[in-house]
Amino acid sequence: MSVQHPSMAARMRAMWEVGRTANLPSVWSNCLAGWLLGGGGRRTTLAFLCVGATLIYIGGMFLNDAVDADWDRLHRKERPIPSGRLGRSNVYVGAALLLGVGWASLLAIGHQVAFHGMGLVVAVVIYDLVHKRLPFAPVLMALCRWLLYITAAGAATNGVTQPAQLGALAIAGYVVGLSLVARRESDGQWAPGRALLLLLCPIALALLARRNAVQPQIIIAAGIAFLVWTVWCIQLAVRPRPRDLPGCVAGLLAGIPLADAVAAASGSWLLATTFGGLFLFALLWQRFAPAT
Q1: C-alpha dihedral over 110, 36, 207, 165, to 10 degrees?
Q2: Cβ count near 150 (within 10 Å)
């Protein structure tokens, strides 16, 4: 009896799924926000930054699935490795290549960016290796996003400015809250109340950082959009029936560009629209690839 091997199209689809590519708009949004808060600069630098961050993110997701393969065989048999669509060893190799080439893309920008980028890669690897075993794993996930912001700001003209540090702290708080919700996805239970407060970090820190903004109406508009979307996602998880915790988590992931807009779009309606476009792109992409 012959063994049926997955087709090339099936393997490509599986890699698309393993890489959680639907979350890439939030990675690009973090890069753009950190870069803007660091003073901006050459667009070619931003392009290299986005390429490097994209490859590191996908590499981290590959490593995540490879490390979690045994757990997935028990709890998520439909994932690409347990279902036999991808080989575990091949996913490990892909993760190493993606992480290495991603870091090399950051090295092409400069040594300081490469230094921050190495911290990002190390944080991603540590998170993937221990996140199923440690109760404070959401903090490690937030550290990865914080380092992405800092790496992006380090690539900009003014470097890691105070607004960039506050923006990084805001997105870290948001991701901790999101991760607390996501950790309850498998058992269908709602996260602790502190997750709700952490999800509002972008609003609180933006008000602190941008209290003297020239165009406060942009911050207000971005803040309202962010708040409305966050409340909408939360109600999916707390309503009596039917609860939709996976939909809440996916929605909060898509909402990261809205959080970035609150932090970084105060100077231009065009920038606010760009972050809004990344948010809509993330929602659209989730129709074709799972976010979690």
Answers
A1: 0
A2: 23
Task: Please report, for the chain, how many H helices and E strands are present, in that order.
Answer: 14, 0
Which tokens sit at 270? Answer: 């065009």
Task: Retrieve residue 40's tokens.
Answer: 């901006």
Cα dist. 7→82, 85, 153, 230 in Å? 17, 9, 42, 40
Phi and psi at residue 183, in whole multiples of 5°? -65, -20
Q: What is the dihedral of CA 236, 61, 169, 234, to 10 degrees?
A: 0
- What is the residue whose two structure tokens read 């949004």? 29
Distance of alpha carbon 83 from alpha carbon 67, whole angstroms: 15
Which bin fits 192, alpha (ψ -120 to 50), beta or left (φ > 0)?
beta
Q: Half-sphere exposure of 28 toward its Cβ, with a 13 Å CA cutoff?
A: 16
The rounded distance, in Å, linking the Cα atoms of 258 and 271 is 11
Quick check: 170 and 202 in contact, CB under 8 A? yes
Rounded CA Rg of the chain: 19
Of 149, 165, 62, 44, residue with least CA distance to 105: 44
Residue labelled with tokens 């993330």: 282
Distance of CA 285 to the CA centre of its chain: 14
Domains in the chain with CATH codes: 13-285 (1.10.357.140)
Average pLDDT for consecutive 10-residue bins of the chain (292 residues)? 60 82 96 95 95 97 92 84 87 96 96 95 95 85 96 96 92 90 63 75 75 71 92 85 85 95 86 96 90 76
For residue 254, which of 35, 20, 25 has the smallest C-alpha distance?
25
Helix (H) or strand (E) run with residue 41 in it: none
Distance CA 162, CA 151 (A): 14
> Model's pTM, two decimal places?
0.91
Contact (CB, 8 A) for 285 and 25: yes
